[in-house]
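FORM 7B - TANDEM STRUCTURE REPORT

SECTION 1: FIRST PROTEIN
SEQUENCE AND TOKENS:
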Amino acid sequence: MAQLGEWSNWAGDQRCRPARVAAPRTVEELAEAIGGAAAAGQKVSIAGSGHSFTETAMTDGTMVEVEALRGVLDADPESGLVRVGGGTVLRELNTALAGLGLALENLGDIDAQTVAGAISTGTHGTGATYANISSRVEAIELVLADGSVRELTAAGEPELLRAARIGVGALGAISAVTLRCFPAFVLERVDEPRPREEVLGRFEELAEANDHFEFFTFPYSDRALVLERNRVDSPPRPRGVAAFLNDIVLENWTLEALAATGKAIPRTIPSLARFAGWVASGGRTVDHSHRVFVNQRKVRFTEMEYGVPLEHGPTAVRRVIEWIRQNRFPVFFPIEVRVTAGDDADLSAAHERPTAYIAVHQYRGMEWRPYFEAVESIMNDYGGRPHWGKRHFQTAATLAPRYPKWAEFQKARDELDPQRVFTNEYAARVLGP
């Protein structure tokens, strides 16, 4: 172990100074580092790629970096079962799977997270009949606070696996994950600007009609950019100029310039948002699934995301936009709306219900708290559950009634980390002491 300077997340708005940092290269070294820290009375946090907007990874004790525990450890293309190191970055995994003729059936639009971090926070893509990434986890290798290594499987310990699939870093260190993958496939992505009210009025219809449906809308614009992705049998084709302009120029360079202008001159935000809504270009892409799912995100921001029952999604979006406009709140970044099928992980935002995910963002350095507090209040009215990797203000007391399997998760936590070695202020607030 060595001394470590200041750690910060990708957004740069969560910072801490761990007393020590460990960078194990093997599972044995990971077990030794965790066991030693626990024996010394230190709390332990596991740091992935830092793409969480919460304080999940923060600690003044021992921070463990698992980036060396990466790569495909075992693969059976026939069954689709692939075992990977917990520190494997999704981007690397996607490339490795493509080489095996395989793919994850669904992905979010960012691929910089580690596998362990993505499943621990309930990272998801979109698709009314597709659940989040953790729903395809068949086994987890977990290093516990005493340095022991435990394999949780669907056949052996299904209750513990359902807890660990979205464990928020509170059960142990994930050293390896076995994922159920699928034969590689090609997606056609069509981007089209449409009137927002039309999209909200047909929300469930559009979700059901497409394999993967989502839309973005600027609060001060009345338009929405609809993204529809569907499986096709045609071969992949190079990305067109329109798709490049939308993905790279508009979503990064132009967005950065407009957001920076809005930050400097807040009164211009409504007109800037209307302009951005009108220039949001359509486009068509046909390519390998992981290239179509993922977008480049270079503009820094902070984010909140809530999952609500699917049928309440449009109303909740309307109310968020109404609050922004009534309060003339200076927010330029678009609202993102996605859908997923339900799943059975104890702490999933989509636990046992089809879900609409509503994500709100604020540009770096701009005031975000009043906006996010208002959004959370709206989501509370629909039994909203927060994305575990995004900002929220909930506590264990407010969260417990929203998860039917909350008690089961706490039971698993008591068994796997009875001394609460894997905890910090954030975990104590949202999961309890």
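SECTION 2: SECOND PROTEIN
SEQUENCE AND TOKENS:
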Amino acid sequence: MRLGTALSWLALCGAGACFVDSTGEGGGAPKDTTSVFLSGGFGQGGSPSGGGGAGGSTVSGIGGAGACGDGAPSVGEECDDGNVAPGDGCDQACQAEPTEDCPATAVAFLGQLGEAVDISGNTAGASDTLRLGDGGSCKSDGPDQWLAVQMLVSGTVEAHLVVKSGFGGNHDKAVLHVRRGCQPDLYEDELACLATNGSTPGEAELAFFARAGETIYFAVDGSGAGDDGTYDLVAKLGSVCGDGNVGGIEQCDDQTAACSGCMRVDLACGGGLGNGTHDTVSGHCYVASEGSPVDFWAARERCFRAGGDVFSLDPNDGMLPVHVGDVWVGLADFATVDMLDEFRWLGSGGVGTLTTMDDPSNALRCVNRTPAAQLFDRACDQAHGFLCEITLDNP
């Protein structure tokens, strides 16, 4: 598929952010690509008085006709949160609006195989909303811009960031954050963080699985103070679960006894991380990786790439994995200002009880599980194996 950027429309945007094309029919873009340009000169929503750092505007939905407030985004609606109340990120006309907690006002929908959103952005002049980097997490101390992608179907999202100019002399100081939520200061929202200093300087890419109804947030950032520049970010739907075709990171797609949703129900459910154990109650797959110890952030990213997250205790889980070694699990205390030792499971938000606890009360702490099934708090930048809970499209 050819990805269009509709560059001929850029002159119409001026210094601020603008919506370029909701159908892919303008500016030479193909019909399965939506293009939008983000400019850092303005704040949220392209308004000179806007706060935050989105610096951009919105692309339109893919769904058919529907009423605003029915909870189903449709053509002409930038969002639909199931109500018509303003002030909650989606206003009474189902248009995205800035909130204090969410700098992402550029919203795109993915609902058809091969569909893509192409963002051409410039972080110069944008706000610095993401200021993470403690405890070994990904550095993020430059101006940033945000994109929210709402999933109308379940499938594989393929994201590719390419630096066009700036972000250091070798274009190696850009960072692509992939987050479950849009509150910039929440470490628990960080699913993956990729810098452009890898084998191909100036580029970063990953594929992951997202479910229908989920909103995934992308943030393009810089790894050093003042690092900014221009970039292209493409988010493409590389597979759709349930269409009978195995694609992306799907393990299967035939709806038979050997395939539940898009995940196998045998040892191969481990998603390339090793042999997994499928739980028929939750429909999830558990797989432990102990061969190459990594820090907590890298562990979570590897689980995310495989189609899930680090294991997080949930009341709906049936069989719990017992015979595993020294592994990270999804239990952490990321609240560094409350002076409390309160560890919560990332999946359910439930409070976890540790075997021992020796952390300073205002530091990021993550939890590893021992072969004896004991839970210990650790500095998040230590190296351990990890236990993934792979979900793909299973309930």
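SECTION 3: OBSERVATIONS ON SECOND PROTEIN
The CA atoms of residues 65 and 316 lie 35 Å apart.
The chain has two domains: 7-240, 259-390.

SECTION 4: SIGNATURE
Preparer initials: ____
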